[in-house]
Amino acid sequence: xxxxxxxxxxxxxxxxxxxxxxxxxxxxxxxxxxxxxxxxxxxxxxxxxxxxxxxxxxxxxxxxxxxxxxxxxxxxxxxxxxxxxxxxxxxxxxxxxxxxxxxxxxxxxxxxxxxxxxxxxxxxxxxxxxxxxxxxxxxxxxxxxxxxxxxxxxxxxxxxxxxxxxxxxxxxxxxxxxxxxxxxxxxxxxxxxxxxxxxxxxxxxxxxxxxxxxxxxxxxxxxxxxxxxxxxxxxxxxxxxxxxxxxxxxxxxxxxxxxxxxxxxxxxxxxxxxxxxxxxxxxxxxxxxxxxxxxxxxxxxxxxxxxxxxxxxxxxxxxxxxxxxxxxxxxxxxxxxxxxxxxxxxxxxxxxxxxxxxxxxxxxxxxxxxxxxxxxxxxxxxxxxxxxxxxxxxxxxxxxxxxxxxxxxxxxxxxxxxxxxxxxxxxxxxxxxxxxxxxxxxxxxxxxxxxxxxxxxxxxxxxxxxxxxxxxxxxxx
Length: 477
What we know:
The protein is of the alpha/beta class. The chain folds into 4 domains: 14-113, Rossmann fold; 151-207; 218-331, Cobalt-precorrin-4 Transmethylase, domain 1, CATH 3.40.1010; 337-476, Tetrapyrrole methylase, C-terminal domain (Methyltransferase, Cobalt-precorrin-4 Transmethylase, Domain 2, 2-Layer Sandwich), CATH 3.30.950.10. Helices cover 36% and strands 19% of the residues. The chain has a 6-stranded mixed beta sheet with strand order 13-14-17-15-16-18, sandwiched between helices. It is globular. It starts with 13 loop residues before the first strand and ends with a helix. The model is unreliable at 472-477 (pLDDT under 50).
């Protein structure tokens, strides 16, 4: 090893940062976070450091560096833009056997400040011994995705009951099994859901149980977003990597599924307009059966589970049968498709509200509120619209929407095969047929849809001639 890894307890100890700029500020903030008594030495301080000095959070040593600043210090960081001064600070610190770090100069440093993943009290430090700090940051990014944010609370809880765990689980094998259960079972799940008292009760009940700790099954409703793998949330990614069973819709892209745990059982449950369908009751039964077998089940849906996704029905069913359930929200199609088409759903000059609608089902358009359909300065985002375009167009125009209202159809939003077709409301049925629009497709209706002609940045764009002036052109006129 070139470096000896060490975690230093600096609580209440005096440390020095030489420099008064943004780099010095970042170093001072980290030291303050560790409980150190921070002195900052420099002729001048940036605005935030000056504010902290006035408030007594740090001590300001005003002026040029002097060796006597180091007296009584436990470590020092040289963070000026003067390489010679930084080297002098390090040399003076070495004479006094004080550990020194020189920012961006590994050769002058006696200790290095690593890239950190903070799940306090769990801390992960990453170092390349100064050889490639950018790569250390990349490793940190990966670990940020993998390490659950509930781990800190779990470790703190285990630490609080450590003596009791050792007493009740005397042999090492039993203790290891208990800690595995803490991580994989309901305790971490409860901490994720901000229920620390219930988590502690579950831990204590399991600790004092005569038998071992049976693994309880659970279900997580996960939103996969519109399909682009980069839009998957960290919470969703963790759930996929912990799953034993994944019940997924056909709308979930192969790229998303490839990010899941390799040995997880995958069950295709359909749910694509015009494709194979699995009855909702059968999906309920599958989730329940696997959870009762002690397996971690992920119900993976396109978009968001609670936006036209029947997630509400599923969580009600699971709760009724006593199954632990979490929800990992996804980016819903309206938000994702609009963004990938360059369309702002709201705009202070053109739209102050958004209405999410579904055109799926025989009577879907007939039950919509007429006043809502005709409201001005409102964007309509219509899900599952392809099969009901004619009836929807007729109803919108009948209820006050002008035939010249801009529209945009986003097909396969966020995917490589995305198409954005723009035109007007009156021409919508013809556009859909002419360009053979297929599901999945989202329809955006309102003045903001015209922005797609100028702001599109992803995928193919098809613009139909329109007699109306585009919004972007009007803004320049």
